[in-house]
Amino acid sequence: MSSWRDLIRDAGIPQRDAELLLLHCLQRDRAWLYSHGAEPAQETAVKHFDRCVKLRSSGAPIAYITGTREFWSLELEVSSGVLIPRSDTELLVAQALERSIHLPKQVLDLGTGSGAVALALAREWQQRVEDATAYSVTAVDRSEDALAVARRNGTRLGLTVEWLQSDWFSALAERRWPLIVSNPPYIADDDPHLSQGDLPAEPLVALVSGQDGLDAMRRIISDAPQYMEAGGWLLLEHGWNQADAVRGLMANRGFQQVSSYRDLAGHERVTEGQWR
């Protein structure tokens, strides 16, 4: 009879992927696998594992197979209707927290998807601010399916976020915020990376944004000042090679103190600007 380690070895997919899928099927952690990997595999779990391996072999992302993804130490539900949260986006959260030190703890998250950024900020403020009424997080997305996932994440994590269906700013009337953040679509329509990795399985609307990938950036940067308090900050995540273009868009719109921040790979990944 095959052992758990045999199943991983013979799965026909990368070992790391096979381990993650097996641990998902068993609802165990890696420490358990190291201790019990030589034990005989149980038939029920083997069948579940085989189904997961077939999905992975067909190109399904692991996050969609398991239904979860960790972000900012939060376990988030994800589905095929939302972008899979990535560690690069944690830089956006970190910089937003840095900016919020000297601002009212109020933030608008545009294009929230699974709610990753909004919930990470809510968790940090929940832990840092004694009065729960002293901070507020508003998150919008034009997809009701995405908002349903985000709402479930917020409820399960016990975090309060105002979830609104809105095409960027369209449903926000005359409200204003001291801090606006967004991880919008920023891939060009014909980018070859769209056919690689997990991207083919993710919602195209959350990935692509015109011929140069900057259409969403242009709209957000153009409209944001109408929804910002004086002295407020706009923070945007973008592609590794788009920082110059995003800085130019912000400066031309009238933002001041425009600057970019590098991710762990050394790429300029987040750009911010202060509204005069």
Explain what you see.
37% of the residues lie in helices and 20% in strands. With 276 residues, it is an alpha/beta fold. The strands form 2 sheets. The protein has a 7-stranded mixed sheet with strand order 5-4-3-6-7-9-8, with helices on both faces. The protein has a two-stranded antiparallel ribbon with strand order 1-2. Helix 2 (15-26) packs across helix 4 (43-57), helix 6 (90-100) packs parallel to helix 7 (116-128) and helix 9 (215-223) packs parallel to helix 10 (243-253). It is globular, with a radius of gyration of 21 Å. The protein starts with a helix and ends with a strand.
Structural class: alpha/beta
Rg, alpha carbons: 21 Å
The overall strand count is: 9
User: Would you list the SSEs in sequence order as H and E?
Assistant: HHHHHEEHEHEHEEHEHEE
Placed side by side, the strands forming the largest sheet appear as 5-4-3-6-7-9-8
On the 0 to 100 scale, the average pLDDT is: 93
Euclidean distance between termini CA atoms: 69 Å
**Total number of helical segments?**
10
Residue stretches low in confidence (pLDDT < 50, at least 5 long) are: none
Q: How helical, in percent, are the residues? A: 25-40%
Question: Which descriptor suits the 3D outline?
Answer: globular
Biggest sheet: strands, sense, closure? 7 strands, mixed
Amount of beta strand: 15-25%
